């Protein structure tokens, strides 16, 4: 990292040196304290770990000799020590991270009353020195706060404040001048006297600059021009104001974030999780947050961010993993088939119908109708209960009375009523012949016209003239597109509380929300009753569906709020401009970071394509970049190319089964590249044969927007019509 090159003002050179000198001295002092704290916390972590181990060994040795209550107590003590050891280890790890970079910013704030009384403005020159925090005309020192990834306290004094603390909002939301933040005791108004970027790497001060908007633009540009990695990184030092508003939005319910490609949605969602974990400690823990992401490789790619921010990793599911989990004991789920690979037109048609809003809405309405009083699924007949008979009409009336309770619970309630009635009528004479509630419930279940979720789904399809839509992929295995409709049917039986996977989740993050079919949104909305953050881009569709505005997605989540992010940060201006011409996105703002123009290469045939790939690999190596994504339209083509390219270069193919993002050179389909980013991208076969339809236009948009710094577009004879009005070299 180098210091921003923004010209400083007249006497700035001296001032800059003064600032750096003072900040260097401050850093040395803080690092000294952190070093002592690391040594202490290391010793504490070792001691607690040792106590835990000893207690475990003792418990194991005395097993069998302890009375049950003693054993219970020891186990309890062991758990306590275990938790203590985990806390100590975590705090030690955090402190160790502080050694490399204890903070990244500093704000000097003068409370409103003081500022008003002394007529103080935002005048950083009035400072007595960077370390002291300076004085303002008329005296009175502003409160100086250093902001880092985690808080650090020394002798009961806050040395570094967490980026999520209320005071840190000053750094993200205000320029020097009038400012305010929400302190625990209420709003504090006053003046932000100074805002400073302080870059520290490996314990050394790289630069310290008082921040104006041009400095911050450059700090951002620098962050964006770095080389990409096999893991996504935190962006705490350069979160933008519009992003901060989303991260710190604490209103309950569902937040839907529609953002253009590269607007930082995934980064924001992860920072938001870290923020909520910090702010809502008593309500949320890493065990109660879950992230739904498009693929396993994506889960791996984002897995480093929360630990970087000092939080434990949270549970993460791919969409397929979640569907399989929710359908455990009901059906297996066939893998999703990529639309770009689909050769079976009938199957594609089936999938297309099940991906529509209309299908989801008709299923949801049909299920609601069946669950409502008067639903026609329960066809009771007289039922002997002990010495009594529960009459069909009475059973039907009880069943209706409990509407809209889910079927399983409702049958249980009716069974309970029938037992109570029979006991009452027979005065206990038939106690020996009384069935259990459970037995009665299964007899009642036999009176349902659909006895399980799959039968219910079949009945829905039959009732609405769509029976041809269901083809089992194999025995007991449904096609991917049937999985969430089937989850909805399971929900009608069990209700939201009947899914072990959903129950512990108190905040659900759904990344790439456009990947979820309307039926999937409806199912997730009904099963997960917790707060949710959804994020995605309606333009990044990779399954052939028609783009729907985020409001359509939000309509599945009662009371959901929608925010839009329009600035694209990932790619250079030149790449974003090209993407914008392929798919005009109204309101998109390309961040001003320039690079070379995308390169277009006519290749003629496969041999020419491979030669051009070789040249692109050579250029990428020479540039010293870390990741190169070679992107084919379909999974099938990606596999073929990986084999061919792999004969010359070391490459990794990304498939649905890939669970670690390898970095280096990867070959992948557009579908699996979505959400990822590469220093440079090479698009294979970007011609009219491959990219011709509207659905293909969206694929092309996704592929182009994966590139951060460089883009090479290879085509055989003529480029795709979506690229033709683009100037070519
Ligand atoms: N404020 C920021 N400071 C530094 N880097 C940022 C900032 N915002 C976004 N970025 C970077 O921009 C890139 C895109 O971010 P991210 O992947 O979160 O975007 P996205 O909206 O989820 O993208 P897509 O929808 O295209 O997959 C990442 O490299 C991220 O680090």
Automatic annotation (TrEMBL):
Coiled coil regions, renumbered to chain: none
Annotated ATP binding sites: 259-266
Region named Disordered: 118-139
Gene Ontology CC terms: cytosol
Gene3D superfamilies named in the record: P-loop containing nucleotide triphosphate hydrolases
Biased segments, Low complexity type: 118-130
Listed transmembrane segments: none
Assigned keywords, A-Z: ATP-binding, Helicase, Hydrolase, Nucleotide-binding
Name of protein: AAA family ATPase
Upper lineage: Bacteria, Bacillati, Actinomycetota, Coriobacteriia, Eggerthellales
């Amino acid at each position: 990292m180098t210091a921003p090159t923004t010209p400083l003002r007249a006497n700035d050179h001296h001032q800059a040196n003064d600032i750096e000198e003072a900040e260097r001295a401050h850093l040395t002092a803080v690092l000294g304290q952190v070093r002592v704290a690391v040594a202490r916390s290391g010793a504490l972590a070792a001691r607690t770990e040792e106590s835990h181990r000893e207690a475990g060994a003792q418990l194991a040795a005395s097993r069998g000799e302890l009375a049950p209550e003693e054993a219970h107590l020891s186990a309890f003590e062991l758990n306590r020590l275990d938790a203590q050891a985990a806390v100590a280890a975590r705090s030690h790890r955090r402190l160790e991270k502080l050694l490399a970079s204890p903070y990244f910013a500093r704000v000097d704030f003068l409370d409103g009353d003081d500022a008003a009384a002394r007529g103080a403005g935002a005048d950083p020159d009035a400072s007595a020195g960077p370390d002291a925090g300076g004085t303002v005309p008329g005296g009175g020192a502003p409160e100086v706060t250093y902001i880092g990834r985690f808080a650090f306290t020394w002798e009961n004094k806050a040395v570094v404040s967490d980026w999520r603390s209320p005071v840190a909002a000053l750094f993200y939301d205000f320029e020097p001048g009038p400012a305010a933040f929400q302190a625990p005791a209420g709003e504090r108004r006053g003046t932000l006297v100074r805002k400073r970027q302080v870059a520290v790497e490996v314990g050394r001060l790289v630069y310290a600059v008082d921040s104006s908007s041009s400095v911050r633009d450059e700090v951002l540009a620098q962050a964006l021009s770095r080389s990409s990695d096999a893991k996504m990184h935190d962006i705490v030092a350069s979160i933008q104001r519009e992003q901060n508003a989303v991260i710190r939005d604490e209103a309950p319910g569902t937040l839907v974030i529609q953002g253009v490609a590269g607007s930082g949605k995934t980064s924001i969602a992860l920072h938001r999780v870290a923020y909520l974990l910090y702010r809502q400690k008593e309500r949320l823990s890493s065990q109660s947050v879950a992230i739904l992401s498009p693929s396993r490789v994506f889960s791996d790619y984002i897995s480093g961010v929360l630990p970087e921010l000092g939080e434990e990793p949270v549970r993460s599911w791919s969409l397929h993993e979640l569907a399989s989990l929710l359908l455990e004991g009901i059906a297996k789920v066939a893998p999703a088939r990529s639309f770009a690979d689909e050769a079976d037109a009938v199957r594609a048609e089936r999938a297309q119908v099940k991906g529509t809003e209309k299908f989801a809405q008709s299923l949801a309405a049909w299920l609601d109708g069946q669950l409502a009083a008067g639903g026609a699924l329960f066809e009771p007949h007289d039922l002997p209960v002990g010495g009594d008979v529960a009459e069909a009409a009475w059973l039907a009336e009880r069943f209706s009375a409990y509407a809209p309770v889910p079927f399983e619970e409702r049958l249980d309630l009716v069974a309970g009523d029938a037992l109570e009635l029979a006991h009452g009528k027979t005065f206990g004479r038939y106690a020996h012949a009384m069935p259990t509630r459970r037995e009665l419930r299964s007899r009642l279940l036999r009176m349902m016209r659909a006895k399980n979720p799959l039968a219910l789904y079949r009945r829905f399809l039959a009732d609405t003239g769509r029976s041809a839509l269901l083809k089992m992929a194999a025995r007991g295995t449904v096609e991917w597109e049937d999985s969430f409709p089937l989850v909805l049917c399971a929900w009608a039986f069990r209700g939201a509380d009947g899914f072990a996977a959903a129950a512990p989740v108190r905040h659900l993050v759904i990344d790439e929300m456009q990947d979820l079919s309307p039926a999937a949104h409806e199912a997730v909305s009904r099963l997960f009753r917790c707060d949710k953050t959804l994020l995605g881009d309606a333009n990044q569709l990779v399954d052939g569906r028609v783009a729907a505005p985020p409001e359509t997605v939000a309509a599945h989540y009662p009371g959901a709020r929608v925010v839009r992010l329009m600035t694209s940060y990932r790619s250079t201006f030149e790449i974003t401009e090209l993407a914008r011409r392929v798919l005009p996105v109204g309101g998109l703002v390309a961040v001003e970071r320039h690079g070379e123009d995308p390169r277009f290469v006519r290749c003629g045939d496969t041999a020419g394509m491979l030669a051009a790939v070789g040249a692109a690999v050579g250029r990428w190596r020479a540039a010293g970049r870390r990741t190169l994504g070679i992107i084919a339209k379909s999974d099938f083509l990606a596999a073929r190319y990986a084999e061919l390219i792999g004969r010359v270069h070391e490459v990794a193919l990304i498939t649905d089964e890939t669970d670690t993002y390898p970095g280096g050179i990867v070959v992948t389909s557009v579908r699996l590249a979505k959400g990822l980013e590469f220093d440079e991208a090479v698009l294979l076969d970007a011609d009219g044969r491959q990219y011709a339809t509207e659905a293909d236009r969206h694929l092309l948009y996704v592929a182009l927007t994966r590139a951060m710094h460089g883009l090479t577009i290879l085509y055989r004879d003529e480029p795709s019509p979506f690229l033709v009005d683009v100037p070519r070299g």
